[in-house]
Amino acid sequence: MSDFPSRVPEWVRWIPAVVLSAIIIAAVAFAASQGPRLAAGPGPAETNEVDDLNFSVFTDEGLAFIEEQRIPRIDLREIPIEAESLGLPASGEVVIGPHEQDLDYRLVLLASGGDGGARFTTWTFTIATEAGEVRELRVAPPREITFGTFRDVEAFAVESAERFGYAPIADGTLLELVLAAQESGQPETTRTESGDRIGLPTHLEITCTGEAFCESVFVIAVE
What is the torsional sign of CA 33, 127, 22, 3? Predict the structure, then answer.
């Protein structure tokens, strides 16, 4: 099987395969569920920066606190989640990141089922609302994993499968996606099946270009 040329960033080319594999394994392990430890908060805050239980709110004050502490915490244990209670629009999207200093966030989600939630190291995430309720979160993996060659992203998809409870994608899936993108001239997208290991339906969405360069994001349904 031949590799395809890609115009990936130079920093991607500098990462040796062994080091990249270590990064993938570490990133997946950190993103996995850690139930008993998930309730730990970022420390004291003003009452307008978090809610009464020290969970994040997304008002101007709350967003400023998130940027300062970089430990957003969202309680998803009692669904449906009212958007207004979190300072979110009734319908729309709120994007957190990238951080102005290129630092990562340590996103904590609490859920009532499965492992009780998960932690993510992420450089950006999006909260989507509709009809006054939180519907979905889209969480980017660490920078080293979000963008990469189709082989690197496929390796991450396989490594993350057990942690999130979805079936691993078949070998060669992203190569086929790259070939489809070359034929169509447009980026092509696939997704894993949904898993509920963390207590919320989660899948990994992957988009590849014809240049064999792919991007991945975790999609978490709040239902």
Answer: positive
